[in-house]
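Section 5: illustrative case.
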């Protein structure tokens, strides 16, 4: 393993100072880290993979230099209506072997949860209807049973250190729960949203963004509670037959997300869309929600996704995809005219997972699913040209979270396996 990069302060204030303290690299969901050395693939080099079979793996995060943590959960019990559990492992950064393991963590209804290193140095997990606090040895320190008997789909840490989570709801209004990370108790009464929400939360500073099943909303921490910003809301479903949106990326003064999130995923997203329409990339200005836009990704019927787009602030490039129709597409954003100019399109690329970006090189990491199983692919974000790929296998298409590594490597979770991708 190459030496960890020299220490440099993170700009994600509520999180531990590591290159990848939580899912998507932080609550803005940029899916990038400026503390990653990148893959730096040169002529004659190619990607290689070390893989390991797991339970349902959701994500890896990085703690102290050289430390890698893996979150997994059970699933079979949910088929007969029984509660499921989660587990956190500290794994070898090279072999992926287990170094330490938490006890089975109480969960409940199944949905991939989340974990993050807090700035206080402890690891927090939200899975099912429970939140847990662990130390760096994976020992459980405290737990909180969340109020609604539904899965809570992960959380964000605000700049002030508070943890905000919500239940995943498709019928009844979602509720935001704020947790004090020290006491592991609610910091205020729950805040009800005006509509259900399936997507994961995003945050900028002490402001939380919620993609509901038809609108995007935001809430600001007042010091006592979360207060809705009633002057900022966009109904992205109005006048259409689109289905709900997924997680929002906050970048360049805009919220970016995709709709037609309803699908029938079992082993892959291919052909599993529900709506008959094409899925769309949606932009909403953070200054004025009346300034918004939506463009079709592939333009094909039955378009669907289960994750966010990716935005490169340095190059002002946004990448969206249609997982159901195997299409990846990029645009350049002109902030002066608020327009998206098409750059490139890759038809036939079966991508569905959260992605990674190396801001320095412009390397974009995504997945491609085929009969041989999952492959991890590196593309140039400005051209869409493939630089390298490697097979990680497995019978299920990944729809969860990768992370950067400590050197010229990264970690890829694809449901029933975890892989270390590195340059050979």
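Designed sequence:
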């Amino acid at each position: 393993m190459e030496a960890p990069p020299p220490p440099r302060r993170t700009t994600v204030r509520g999180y531990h100072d590591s290159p990848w303290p939580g899912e998507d690299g932080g609550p803005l969901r940029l899916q990038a880290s400026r503390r990653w050395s990148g893959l730096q693939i040169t002529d004659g080099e190619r990607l290689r993979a070390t893989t390991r079979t797991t339970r349902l793996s959701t994500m890896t995060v990085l703690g102290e230099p050289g430390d890698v943590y893996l979150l997994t959960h059970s699933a079979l019990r949910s088929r007969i209506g029984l509660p499921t559990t989660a587990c956190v492992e500290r794994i070898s950064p090279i072999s992926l072997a287990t170094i330490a393991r938490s006890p089975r963590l109480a969960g409940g209804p199944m949905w991939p949860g989340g974990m993050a290193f807090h700035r206080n140095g402890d690891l927090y997990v939200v899975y099912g209807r429970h939140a847990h606090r662990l130390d760096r040895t994976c020992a459980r320190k405290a737990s909180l049973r969340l109020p609604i008997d539904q899965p809570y789909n992960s959380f964000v840490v605000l700049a002030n250190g508070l943890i905000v989570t919500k239940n995943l709801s498709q019928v009844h209004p979602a509720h935001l729960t704020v947790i004090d990370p020290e006491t592991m108790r609610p910091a205020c009464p729950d805040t009800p949203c005006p509509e259900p929400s399936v997507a994961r939360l995003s945050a900028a500073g002490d402001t939380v963004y919620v993609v509901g099943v038809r609108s995007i909303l935001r809430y600001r921490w007042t010091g006592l509670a979360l207060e809705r910003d009633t002057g900022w809301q966009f109904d992205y479903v109005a006048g259409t037959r689109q289905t709900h949106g997924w997680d929002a990326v906050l970048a360049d003064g805009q919220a970016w997300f995709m709709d037609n999130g309803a699908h029938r995923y079992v082993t892959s997203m291919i052909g599993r869309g529900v709506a008959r329409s094409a899925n769309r990339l949606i932009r909403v200005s953070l200054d004025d929600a009346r300034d918004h836009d939506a463009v079709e990704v592939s333009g094909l019927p039955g378009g669907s996704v289960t994750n966010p787009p990716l935005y490169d602030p340095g190059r002002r490039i946004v990448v969206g995809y249609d997982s159901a129709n195997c299409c990846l597409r990029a645009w350049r954003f002109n902030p002066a005219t608020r327009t998206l100019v098409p750059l490139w399109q890759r038809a036939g690329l079966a991508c569905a997972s959260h992605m990674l970006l190396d801001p320095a090189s412009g390397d974009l990491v995504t997945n491609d699913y085929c009969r041989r199983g999952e492959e991890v692919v590196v593309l140039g974000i400005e051209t869409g040209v493939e630089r390298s790929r490697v097979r990680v296998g497995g019978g299920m298409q990944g729809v969860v979270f990768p992370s950067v590594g400590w050197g010229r490597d990264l970690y890829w979770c694809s449901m029933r396996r975890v892989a270390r991708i590195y340059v050979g």
